[in-house]
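User: Can you predict the 3D structure for this chain?
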Amino acid sequence: MKKTKFFTLLFAAALSPLLLNAQQAPSAVPEEGEAAPKSTRPKQTDKASNQLINNYLAVTGSKQAHSNLRNVVATGTIEEAGRIRKFKLVETQDGKRKVTYTWRHLGREHEVQYAFDGLQSWSQEVKPKEKSSQSYGGQTGKHFQTQRWLLHPFVLPLSASYVFKYQGLDKVYGRPTYVIVGYGKHDERSWFYFDQEKFLITRWGGIGLIAGVEEYMDYSAIRFAKVNGVLLPKEIDLLAEGQPFGTISIDSIEANQVIDSTIFKRPASNIPVLRQRPVQ
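Assistant: Here is the predicted structure, written as structure tokens:
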């Protein structure tokens, strides 16, 4: 408790000259129902964002403890609009990720994989019948690449691709928060909400796609657990336009596992190529 009070006072002192201007300035975090505003990538991360990130790293373990998490492997269930599936998640500190969903429907086992190898995203249906992998692009693919469930882009090597900008104040489930926006390698935006009292990240997200329409798709952490000395989300609400539509329930998280790097690579096509006869 003393640690969080100290960080609160420290951040308030650093923020006070900027607070009024930040609240009056146009925000890069959209209001519910608004069109996505166009914003310019800052040249560098501002002091307020740096302080919030440092506070978050400190209260959830330490910057070194976060850096020591080379990867995490998590299992659990995800419920979306009444549909329940099991998942296995792999996320690495350099930004790679893979999610495998499995479920049973009408007596048949189903399995679908989604992955980002650091350059491109792909998906593949494995069960009930294996199909060729597909490119997982567009806004949906960008959201998958940039919106991670467990490892935020606040330590190297991933943080080197980001700059952050303080946006102002908001609330998450009634609790006051500070908000910053991160601009990734290709200027894709992500927003992060830091609880004003505890400095935990209680909401984060970016622009996704629902029924062909760009929407604001966020995550909200409602329970946490310590893994290798770092506090990570244990239960996460799924939000679309600020409204809950599902929950990620994590049963287990293991850190620094031996991972075969080929799991992120897109499988070669299994569809035979038909050779055409030369025209006489």
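Helices lie at 2-24, 47-59, 63-67, 138-146. The longest helix spans residues 2-24.
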